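Intended use. Records like the one below are meant for learning the mapping from a protein sequence to its folded structure. Do not use them to infer anything beyond what is encoded.
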Amino acid sequence: MKIKTLFVSAEMAPLAQSGGLGDVVGALPSRLKAQGHDVRVVLPLYKKIKQKYEKKLKFLRWSMIKLGWRTMYSGLLSMKLDGVTIYFIDNDFYFGHDPLYIDYSFDIERFSFFQRAVLEALGEPMDFEPDILHLHDWQTAMIPCLLDAHYRPYGYHQKVRTLLTIHNLKYQGIHGRERIADLMDLPDRYMSEFGVLKDGVPNFMKAGIVYADRVNTVSPNYAAEIMTAYYGEGLEVLLQSQAYKLSGILNGIDEISYNPASDESIARCYDLKTWKEGKAACKNALQKELGLEQTGHQPLAVMISRLVDQKGLDLLLRILDEMLHSGIQVAVLGTGEPYYEQALREIAARNPRRLAVRILFDIDLSRRLYAGGDLFLMPSLFEPCGLSQMIAMRYGTLPVVRETGGLKDTVIPFNPETNEGNGFSFANINAHELLFKVQDAANTYRERPQEWQKLVESAMKGDYSWNRSARDYLDLYRMLIG
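Structure written out for the chain above:
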């Protein structure tokens, strides 16, 4: 049976992206389509998309959307990208800006408009009535409620089922009661604690959890974690009550792009049979590029990350000097909060041959770090899924992670008794647990090369593809439509 699915999202790689959400929406539709299903995507028509693809965009129709006291123009355009039909909602007032996200209050209004415009475009305007609306994060989470309030009572979209994927529960879409009731034109019966309100104020994510037919997260472990107080961001009790429709499906990576056997960005390509020589050449070239001491004996630990507290920067900074002085080189690539950027620069200035810090966004350099590193540091406080640890393992760089979210699902800690595993992990938010685990990994690298070889080969053999995830989503889709 061919399943018709419309992805509704604020991001999609390579058109418009700020994080992992864009990767998922950029990869998953084509994998589902390759398995014989009709999968399409709808996005805001951001300024950067309109400028780059102006000649490819096909105008379909326009309409007027009543939004509070305004009546706003909504254009519907489309184009094909890698065989997938992409629809765009056009409005220059809301989306004619350089950044994807502007101001939190304005973003609430922008994505209120987007959701209402998407629902107005379903069916005849798009010439597409999906079986499933696959919604992503708070920017689309009000759609199940809007369907229930404005369409189904009048006989529209009766058979459409909704799936909400939570990529990061921390961001929920919260604003004032009167404004959201106005923007969404919601009757009073929805403006309650049983509906869209959380602690007296509208919460888009909460509304999605309540009204969607199914809810999933981007890893099985994160689905379990968000039902606890520490990870639940205030929604844990609600999620416990909705546990019957909550599940987790692990994200994947682009194994064609992230392939050390064909990656043109790295010093020498390698595969499972040639990884020792290939990684040694990549490491030597990386050390030279970054100004680190060129040695094969010292393990090189790399980190590619946004420099924010969620990524465990406080843990790393507390023990970084000790790590460096225990004979471990470190290279960090990323941008983020000025405090973390400056702290890393200061430690690097004291240890120029041991620590390299590059405060920038550089895709090619990130690939050279994946290929040239021995260890990959990812001590996140929470991590819904994480892609970097899977990319690192694809390149034979062993992750050192905290046991949370998707990190726990993908990284199997090394067991010296059985010589099994594909990386190293620690349990608690504790800087010295991180240090001791990195030192343990470094000792394995230096003193037990046969064990290290088994770990690297296990990491490189792993299946991190989107094909696996696509099969799991199809199972969930079939469950939804019966």
